[in-house]
Design brief:
The complex is a heterodimer.
Chain A lengths: L1 H15 L5 H19 L3 H24 L1 H8 L2 H7 L4 H30 L4 H31 L4 H27 L6 H28 L3
Helix pairs in contact in A: 1-6, 2-3, 2-6, 3-6, 3-7, 3-8, 4-7, 6-7, 6-9, 7-8, 7-9, 8-9
Chain B lengths: L1 E11 L2 E12 L3 E5 L6 H8 L7 E7 L11 E4 L11 H12 L6 H7 L15 H14 L4 E5 L7 H16 L3 E5 L9 E4 L5
Parallel strand pairs in B: 3-7, 3-8, 5-6, 6-7
Antiparallel strand pairs in B: 1-2, 1-4
Helix pairs in contact in B: 2-4, 3-4
Classes of the chains: A mainly alpha, B alpha/beta.
Chain lengths: 222, 200
């Protein structure tokens, strides 16, 4: 337990320090959402209809942006060797790293959502719904993205491969995340059904992600 | 305690690095692995550390902790220092001590032994190559492991650093530990030579 909490604390600390990845994701998210009203034009009704989709797309791309470094940095400085050798199971270490990444890079996105909702003409209820779906859905993005990050280390290929591998896996999360938010704003579906599926996707990836990432890292030992 | 390998064969990138390699080391013994560049010194250390899978052969540690695998009872000091430039010297060491777990010694004392006690709050990014190496050596002291796997351990160390490190290795061997070091330079301690790949 000490080992895992030490790993989580270290990763969060690095992400929050100068040069860490936490701020980059939020800034990217901010940029995408702020630019969107200028691109779409001053049609408020259209903007509020597109709002949830824009916020979700922004969050998805922002979390992918920093995710490819998840194992790469540890691989480059040799930390990954020691993590692999240690008495902590590699699966748990992977889960701890993903959790730390979500806390440092995923949570700030959700905190920023209410502010950005204003720019997209979303009311309080709609913004709340989007923030709630992001809270339930972003763990799925991080934990499936982790598989791609592990493969990127194994195959010695950087960001592009990771995007190609991870994007198809994140499409279901995007579909149900936006569907649940739209259900609150325009109806006529119920919020419960797509939201439950979103939660289920997160729970499945929470279990599958660490095992798949650890298997990939072990297979790529070199 | 006795660490031994039998009939080890290592293949990397489709090329056989070595085959039929035998070695053994007992408590308090140091093994200096020598050989020309590319003969497989690092590969041997990584095989023992579980970071490479042998194509054939076995590695066993007799008299160790039966609950643990061989890599879990080893310290591995590779070419790369496993340090995070954003974290301070003390934070880097504290992380590895917490993460690796097991029997621990005082972190401040370990830093003092490697001569870094004056720089504990300095971010590791500001350290020189020799200081980074000293900080990695402090990791070997902060957490106890019976087997030390060292890959060119004295790289970047100055003369006093090398003397300091010889002292630390002697202390480790005196406490019943084992050292397997891949090296070109003499280690400064009594060691047995394991030559890979014939004469250079």
């Amino acid at each position: 337990m000490t080992a895992l909490s030490a790993l989580i604390r270290r990763d969060i600390r690095i992400a929050l320090r100068v040069g860490g990845g936490a701020l980059i994701g939020v800034l990217f998210f901010l940029t995408v959402v702020v630019l969107m009203p200028f691109a779409v034009g001053p049609d408020l009704a259209l903007l509020s209809r597109l709002g949830p989709a824009i916020l979700w797309l922004g969050a998805l791309l922002a979390s992918l942006l920093t995710l490819d470094r998840l194992f790469m940095a540890d691989h480059e400085d040799g930390s990954l060797d020691l993590i692999t050798m240690s008495r902590t199971p590699l699966e748990l270490a992977c889960a701890a790293k993903a959790l730390a990444h979500w806390l440092a890079a995923g949570l700030p996105l959700i905190v920023a959502t209410p502010v950005l909702g204003l720019l997209l003409n979303l009311d309080m209820v709609a913004t709340g719904a989007v923030a709630l779906t992001l809270l339930a859905g972003t763990p799925a993005l991080t934990f499936t993205g982790m598989i791609g990050a592990a493969l990127a280390v194994t195959l010695h290929r950087g960001g592009l491969l990771m995007a190609v591998l991870v994007l198809p896996l994140s499409i279901p999360v995007l579909i149900f995340g936006v569907a649940a938010s739209q259900a609150v704003i325009v109806g006529p579906m119920t919020f419960g059904a797509p939201f439950s599926i979103l939660c289920a996707l997160s729970l499945v990836s929470l279990v599958v992600g660490p095992f798949a990432a650890a298997a990939s890292l072990r297979h790529g030992l070199d | 305690m006795r660490l031994s390998g039998h009939g080890l064969r290592c293949v990397r990138g489709g090329r056989e690095v070595f085959a039929g390699l035998e070695f053994a080391a007992a408590s308090g013994e140091a093994l200096a692995v020598t050989g020309r560049n590319g003969s497989g010194k690092t590969s041997l250390l990584r095989l023992i550390a579980g970071l490479l899978v042998p194509a054939a052969g076995t590695i066993a540690l007799e008299g160790g902790d039966a609950e643990l695998t061989v890599p879990e009872q080893c310290h591995y000091l590779g070419h790369r220092d496993a340090l995070k430039p954003a974290l301070s010297v003390a934070e880097n060491l504290a992380f590895w001590a917490d993460f690796l777990g097991g029997e621990r010694s005082d972190a401040a004392e370990s830093l003092a032994k490697v001569g870094l006690d004056h720089a504990t709050h300095l971010p590791a990014g500001f350290l020189s190559a020799g200081q980074r190496r000293r900080l990695s050596l402090a990791r070997l002291l902060a957490v106890h492991r019976p087997v030390w796997l060292l890959d060119e351990p004295t790289n970047a160390l100055d003369v006093t650093g090398q003397d300091m490190f010889s002292g630390l290795m002697r202390e480790h061997l005196g406490g019943g530990g084992m050292i397997i070091a891949a090296t070109h330079a003499p280690l400064g301690i009594d060691s047995r030579e394991l030559r890979i790949g014939g004469t250079a």
